[in-house]
Design a protein that fits this description.
About 30% of the residues lie in helices and about 35% in strands. It is built from seven helices and twelve strands. Strands 7-8-9-10-11-1-2-3-4-5-6-12 form a twelve-stranded mixed sheet. The longest helix has about 45 residues. Helix 1 packs antiparallel against helix 3 and helix 2 packs antiparallel against helix 3.
Length: about 270
């Protein structure tokens, strides 16, 4: 661009201005010189505008590039700092959220999906209300576990530690500090909007072999949980519409068995 503008400028200066001035009256000569100066000003203004526009484009591109990449403050967070921020975020009496769940049994190539809402009260109290495709309520007060299927007129009773203890079954949501206590944690392949934490249980079991957590960079909410068992079966849970409440009602985490329902006792 610069070479082209300079060429145009030098060509304008090469016009027969001096020869023309000698042949014209003094007034016309001054007029021609004034026009030359005006052309020079116009060219210089054009060059200046072009440079300002070019610099503005560079600045815009830099801003866009910085938005595509990780913010400098967040990208510099260590693993321990990310875990601290998550623990601070969940250091509240409880929370509620919507969830969608997709479960895959690898050997049988079967995938099921479900939707509902979750309520949590620290420590160790949870209520999972499945709304679709089948109604089901999973409730625990930290000691007992109830799984109620109203359409089947059936309730299953068990113990919390056997099914949610040590963070199993997304049980760590009711006590986020279990993540640090019960898992070996490393960064996974982070994404632009999320930190990915890879959790390996310190105590191996058939029920749980690996967990991936997606952590919002903006809020440090846990927005996705993917768990694997030793058979390669996968369960993914997406969290949305998360609300941190102040005083969850204890009655939500207790269950009174309706009369006439079938009762199944779980071992463990």
């Amino acid at each position: 661009m610069k070479t082209c503008v300079q060429a145009r400028f030098f060509r304008s200066q090469a016009l027969p201005g001096n020869t023309l001035c000698e042949a014209l009256p003094l007034v016309k000569c001054k007029l021609v010189n004034e026009r030359c100066r005006m052309k020079f000003k116009i060219i210089m203004i054009s060059i200046l505008c072009a440079l300002l526009f070019f610099e503005a484009r560079i600045a815009l591109c830099k801003d866009s590039f910085s938005e595509l990449n990780l913010p400098s403050q967040e990208s510099s967070l260590s693993l321990n700092e990310v875990i601290n921020r998550v623990e601070e975020r969940y250091d509240v009496p409880g929370f509620t959220a919507r969830f969608s769940q997709e479960s895959t049994i690898k050997d049988m190539n079967i995938t099921d999906t479900a939707f509902g809402k979750i309520s949590v009260k620290n420590p160790c109290m949870m209520r999972w209300e499945y709304e679709k495709p089948d109604r089901q309520i999973i409730i625990t007060d930290g000691k007992k576990l109830w799984v109620y299927r109203p359409d089947d007129n059936q309730v299953t009773i068990g113990k919390f530690p056997s099914f949610f203890g040590d963070g199993k079954g997304a049980g760590f949501l009711s006590d986020v500090k279990l993540i640090r206590k019960k898992f070996s944690i490393t960064f996974g392949k982070n994404r632009s909007n999320y930190y990915i934490l890879k959790l390996l249980p310190t105590d191996k079991s058939l029920d749980l072999s690996l967990i991936y957590l997606s952590i919002s960079r903006k809020t440090f909410d846990i927005v996705r949980i993917v768990t694997y068992n030793s058979y390669g079966d996968e369960t993914g849970i997406e969290m949305s519409d998360i609300h941190f409440t102040q005083k969850p009602d204890d009655s939500m985490f207790d269950f009174e068995i309706p009369e006439g329902v079938d009762i199944i006792e779980l071992d463990g």
